[in-house]
Amino acid sequence: MGFKEVVYQENQRLGKLMDEAQVQSLYQRSKYYILMQEIKAKLTPQLPADEPILAYLPLTNTDNTALMNTGINGLAYARSKAAREYVEKFHDTRGNRLMVFTKRQILFLVVVDFLEDNQYFSYPYSSLQSIFVEKYQRNYFDEKFHRQRFTCYFVDFQSEAHVFIEALSEQDYQEFCRIKEQISAFAAVPKSNHVQRNSRLDCILHKIGATAVWWINIPFFLLLVYLIWRLLSVK
Predict the structure, then answer these.
(1) Model confidence pLDDT, tens digit, residues 66-89
(2) pLDDT for 112-147, tens place per residue?
(3) How confident is the model over 84-93, as pLDDT tens digits?
(4) What is the pTM of this model?
(5) How far apart are CA 215 and CA 84, in angstroms?
């Protein structure tokens, strides 16, 4: 396709009237597309020539785990030009993350950290004993009091000393499973109904952490019950 063909296609696109929301949506998609090309251009030379990138899985604070990427944990100091431009353009610090799948490993990166310090983590498929998956569902009422159901999947695995834990939305999990089945070395890693840790101490710490989270929720539940009781008792 030559220069004229591209310009003529642009004329056709401009001939279709778009409202402000459509224009902004197109602009945002264009920015993210350029960002992905920048990440790919920086990451690809660091991989062996025979290990191309096969798939991506994006993670955000909106649909995935936000606890470790907001508030104090979400602070990041962007010093490099690329990282500063990213923060200014997307108004994000550590919220956008990316899982990158090759035929030998999973790479995990926080976008701003990758642009700043070239930081990412590697999880070779050969080092994964199993992948823990747990489905979580919760019913709630929306603003129109319609009953809704929230579903997510907790994914947990360990590679050597590094532990990966993430909450995937329904769409993310289906894409995760699709990618897993398409990569033979990844497909060979079994799913498990229990968390796998490489040391007994890690197992103990995980159980303590999970128990602590459960107990932390109890005071909030009791407070909610008390408030409901108070509202019902008001005459």
Answers:
(1) 655 555 455 567 788 888 998 888
(2) 999 999 999 999 999 999 999 999 888 877 777 778
(3) 998 888 888 8
(4) 0.74
(5) 40
Tokens describing residue 170: 């329904």
**Residue 111's pLDDT is what?**
93
Q: Which has the closest alpha carbon to 155: 201, 209, 195?
A: 195
Which residue in the block uniquely carries the two structure tokens 């894409």?
175
100's CB contacts (< 8 A; 6+ apart) are 43, 53, 55, 56, 106, 107, 108, 109, 120
Per-residue H/E/C for the chain: CCHHHHHHHHHHHHHCCCCHHHHHHHHHHHHHHHHHHHHHHHHHHHCCCCCCEEEEEEECCCCCCCHHHCHHHHCCCCCCHHHHHHHHHHCCCCCCEEEEEECCEEEEEEHHHHHHHCCCEEEEHHHECCEEEEEEEEEEECCCCCEEEEEEEEEEEEECCEEEEEEEEHHHHHHHHHHHHHCHHHHCCCEECCCCCCCHHHHHHHHHHHHHHHHHHHHHHHHHHHHHHHHHHCC
Task: Residue 38: name the closest of 3, 75, 2, 90 by CA.
Answer: 90
